[in-house]
Fold these 3 entries.
Entry 1:
Amino acid sequence: MKIITWNCNMAFRKKARFILAHQPDILIVPECENIEKLQFPPDVPLPAAALWYGTNQHKGLGVFSYSDYRFELMDCHNPDFKNVLPIAVTQGKTDFTLFAVWANNPQDKDGQYVTQVWKAIHYYEKLLSETKTILIGDFNSNTIWDKPRREGNHSAVVRKLAEKKIYSVYHKFFNQEQGKEIHPTLFLYRHENKPYHLDYCFASNDFIEVLENVEVGTYEDWKMHSDHKPLIVTFGNVIS
């Protein structure tokens, strides 16, 4: 299974061909327009299934299948956490729980970015499991911005997920420390001298055990399309 997250910086319909060249089975697209606005060019493959959530029709969170996988937003979804979506993924080789993430909620006075993820993983704690669980998307956070007095900083999220045996696939694959990543996923304002790592895929231990490859797009390849680079993750088959 190849799963990709890419914050497209809006207008996904005009940029889809570039990410689809990487042949995702599942694609998570923060800052994506509403599905009703997705009028793709004739030569761009249509998704086999799609799910979208947001309040701004031009800038929400899209989840797309280009394979047998199908999606259903779970009834337990709490809109207070806006763009942290618990999704039942079925009909592929492995059924699993997917949390699609775009950590951005300006209405939350406690914190609009990583605090959203912190609150969500506590609210959905019973769904988080050391098996068949993936959280992926734009977390808008990094350990370098930890505020020690803030309960729900980035490092706290990483620790909480580790308690469930859920780990960042990038850090496992490249043997990196949080906050010292050598592959940026964002170049702020598309400036090459402002690199940050903000996009993540956290996976339960069974997925980690069959992790085959992790790739981050380069500045040169993606600067014309978005300030973010795609995070491309390939897993082998999880044994049921």
Note: The helical segments are 16-20, 114-123, 154-163, 169-174, 205-209, 219-222.
Entry 2:
Amino acid sequence: MSSHRGPLRKTSGNRLTAIMQVRNEAGRYLEQVLEELSEFVDDIVIVDDGSTDHTAQLCLSFAKVKKLVTLQSSLFNREWELRQTLWELAVSTNPDWLLSVDADEFYEESAKREMRRLIDQDVYDWVSFRLFDFWGGTTHYREDEHWNIHTKHTRTLVRYLPNFHYFFPKMDHHVPRLPLSYSVLPGFLTELRVKHYGWAISPEELRRKYSRYLELDPEGRWGSLEQYESILDEQPHLVEWQEEL
């Protein structure tokens, strides 16, 4: 019997696999993220980066979590290795399409509805979305010179091509979430939106996050020192979110 997968690019029947790296996310947004993902993806693959809470058990309570690996020691300070580990685990499942999701990201309803149409085609191999950084809560996003990722496109959905060369830049922090090699393949830029709640936290938590960034990257080698400083802005420019149903 042949083990041939069939055509590299299928126009129907594609499975969608969400991939995540998590660390001490219990009691935050992870449960809600997994509930939402379970509505519109087929499988979920997770690397738990040495959590010390019950993050792993929470993940395994969801039927669609097909693979979970817990690292005994955290790769937090070698992020490219963490990305690589998650990628290798994900592709070991022989996936069709991979959706890279953080433990505090939510796809808008219109984006969820479009997912099948985005993957059941043979024209492009990746899809980008508009990512919005919510700030101080879940009603407003931040928009200024340092916080404007939503004006650009972020590649989070990719077709897996088994014999393609994949690589991540060897960076300690701020590593692209998917292999850079996708940039040479044909892609599709959508206006569909993703809500990022990583900054939807209290002023005290913002200060702690600021301190952590400076500790990890005191010279701004992996990111921008100006952006780190802007975390402490007392009156950031916020825009009210309008959900597109």
Note: The first strand starts at residue 16 and ends at 22.
Entry 3:
Amino acid sequence: MATHTPQTAARPWTAQDIPDQTGRTAVVTGGNSGIGLATAQALAGAGAHVVLAVRDPRRGEAAARRVHGSVEVRRLDLADLSSVRAFAAAWHGGLDLLINNAGVMNIPEARTKDGFEMQFGTNHLGHFTLTNLLLPHLTDRVVTVSSSAHRMPGSPRIHFDDLDLAGAYRPMTAYSQSKLANLLFTLELQRRLTAEGSPVRALAAHPGWAATNLQGHDASLLRRLALRAGNRFLAQDEAAGALPTLYAAVQDLPGASYTGPDGAFEMRGAPTLVGRSRAASDPVTARRLWTVSEELTGVTFPRLAVAAGA
């Protein structure tokens, strides 16, 4: 069974509440470190076969040795759509769970191999492409990791007139845009799955403030120092940061749900359903983003009924 009866208020939900995952297969992007590795460890520990989809197979193999259970490593570079296509083309058989976890945060201006702004290209377009290509294999759900940064001050939005922020690049603006895109992607993906009559569900999660390597690449030295202090004194550890992802992955939640910590400002705590910004709830913007993403990647939503009957 992939679901579990929600915990009562008397006891917070933990990884020990993950139901038996024996016989199930999960892909975790960026599964070699941080909350991705913690997610993989928890799923494998519950009996799932976990595929670590990583940019550097050598680091992936080192991480796999820290996973107790059935695990394998496959190369996936989300900043290179040819790598995404190769990963998907090599997939055979069913896939129960896709965890779109990998990401980059607040980095200096850079471009993907295909010429997209790195944060939008990796965090959104790479996962958009991967998900659509793997959908014919999926049987249960897609969980995409977003961030509370989707509602940062300044009213984050999708810059349809300049998605790459050319000439106006700011690391936090680009990151917020990419995390807003993750939520809009989840919203529109669920709409399409429902219209198709698919049992697959699309959900999103955010970890709160988790102490990982993600913050160590910030373009600002002052922010890196502040984040380092925050990681030490305020943040949850990686295992706690992975709980909202795991909760979204195994709980019986409605499609398009968004999960995160239940503590103050959603920075830490037990996983629960959380709210999102008005911008992240706009179906018109979600559809527009989907159309633009199809144009940029050349990948479209698959005909699932045809694929299932083939």
Note: The first strand starts at residue 25 and ends at 29.
